[in-house]
TrEMBL record:
Residues 244-384 form the Acyl-CoA dehydrogenase/oxidase C-terminal domain. It comes from Symbiochloris irregularis. Keywords: FAD, Flavoprotein, Oxidoreductase. GO terms for cellular component: peroxisome. Belongs to the acyl-CoA dehydrogenase family. This is Acyl-CoA dehydrogenase.
């Protein structure tokens, strides 16, 4: 893994679908991940630690801010931002999630829904990765049913008092800026607030014993009478529906992440099978090995094309929630199959994280669940196919807000 394998996954010249600018993003990101992250990341993954020392080097790639324009952000195309996440995930899923949370959740929320003062103060430093962002929506009792969140915001003179709990919040143990979603006790609508590191009453604790994305510092958050000033409220958030303005893009990025995992596992398996010999024969010469490789390659290419089409539909203004859920669910399901075949191809080495495949095998489990579980995303897709929502009991059928 320290010497990452050359790319072997582009069997259909999918690279031709990228613009010159997008290919440049892909190349610089690939070089960085192979040179700076691949040699060290297995040890960090094993220890469940985040490699903070690579962040200043990552900042030099000018990826911070993704699709946002101005305020020091690069203004990438959807595909440009996606291909950066793909190349990061090809080497390590945790690093991809770190950047996705920072760019496509925290920064994007501020960029789309924040005040001008908030944008001017925070976005330039976040784009330079001098400040790290987190996004706190999910709660211990509310995952897929995120619109039922129970954290509260009470108006007081000069600001707000936040109370409640959050769970599974990526980057939260070290984030400088956390976007917190809470229910306004006066209007009963959902608002969002910026909470800074060190705020009194804002306590984060790392979730231990994960088997996936171990380097991501997911946290439980407890808020006990946390005061934030009026200037900390995101003025563009007035209901739960406003989350969709952010999730429309983050869903796309999550649909791309398993594509990167599969690319990396396929590349690793191709090299391994050519180098490893049994019975005086390279494993790559065995028919069963070739059959599995062919299935892995076909799935990886199909996943890329699904995510690519979703990205183009978003750019054209035609993407729906049902489309995004279909691709996210399908890509994460198929990625598990690719991971399983890769694990089998490496035999005993398929359970050792040093060879990348076992690590990716585990990380795929997190992608299968976060930003909407596989099951909820398939029901959103089914709603698009039938016009009938299966999320709630039939006796309670009403238009429903679904976090997917």
């Amino acid at each position: 893994m320290a010497n990452f394998p050359p790319p072997a996954h582009d069997a259909f010249r999918i690279d031709d679908l990228l613009s010159p600018e997008e290919r440049a993003i892909r190349q610089k990101t690939r070089q960085f991940m192979e040179a700076e992250v691949a040699p060290i990341i297995a040890d960090y993954w094993e220890r469940a630690e985040f490699p903070h020392q690579v962040v200043p080097k990552l900042a030099k790639l000018n990826l911070g801010g993704g699709v946002l324009k101005g305020y020091g952000c690069p203004g990438q195309s959807i595909m440009g931002a996606a291909i950066a996440n793909v190349e990061i995930a090809r080497v390590d899923g945790s690093m991809s999630t770190f950047l996705m949370v920072h760019n496509s959740l925290a920064m994007l929320t501020i960029g789309l829904l924040g005040s001008e003062a908030q944008k001017e103060e925070l976005l330039p430093r976040m784009a330079a990765l001098q400040l790290t962002g987190a996004w706190a929506l999910t709660e211990p009792s509310n995952g897929s049913d995120a619109s039922a969140l129970e954290s509260t915001a009470r108006k007081v003179d000069g600001g707000w008092i936040l109370n409640g709990q959050k769970r599974w919040i990526g980057n939260a143990t070290f984030a400088d800026v956390v976007v917190v979603w809470a229910r306004n006790l006066d209007t009963r609508q959902i608002n969002a607030f910026i909470v800074r590191k060190g705020a009194k009453g804002f306590v984060t604790s790392k979730i231990e014993n994960k088997i996936a994305l171990r380097s991501v510092q997911n946290a439980d958050i407890v808020m006990s009478d946390v005061f934030v000033s009026d200037s900390a409220r995101l003025t563009g958030v007035n209901s739960f529906q406003d989350t969709n303005k952010v999730l429309a893009i983050s869903r796309i990025m999550v649909a791309w992440q398993p594509v990167g995992l599969c690319m990396g596992v396929y590349d690793m398996c191709v090299r391994y099978l050519k180098e490893r010999q049994q019975f005086q024969t390279p494993l790559a010469a065995f028919q069963i090995s070739q059959e599995k490789l062919a299935r892995m390659l076909g799935s990886t290419q199909a996943m890329f094309l699904m995510a690519w089409r979703l990205s183009k539909l978003h750019e054209a203004g035609h993407m729906t929630h049902e489309m995004a859920s279909t691709v996210k669910a399908w890509n994460t399901r198929v990625s598990r199959e690719v991971m399983a075949m890769g694990r089998e191809l490496l035999g005993g080495n398929g359970i050792v994280s040093d060879f990348l495949v076992a690590k990716a095998f585990c990380d795929a489990e997190a992608y299968h669940t976060y930003e909407g579980t596989y099951e909820v995303n398939t029901l959103v897709a089914g709603r698009g196919a039938t016009g009938i929502s299966a999320i709630k009991a039939r006796a309670q059928q009403k238009p429903t807000q679904v976090q997917a």
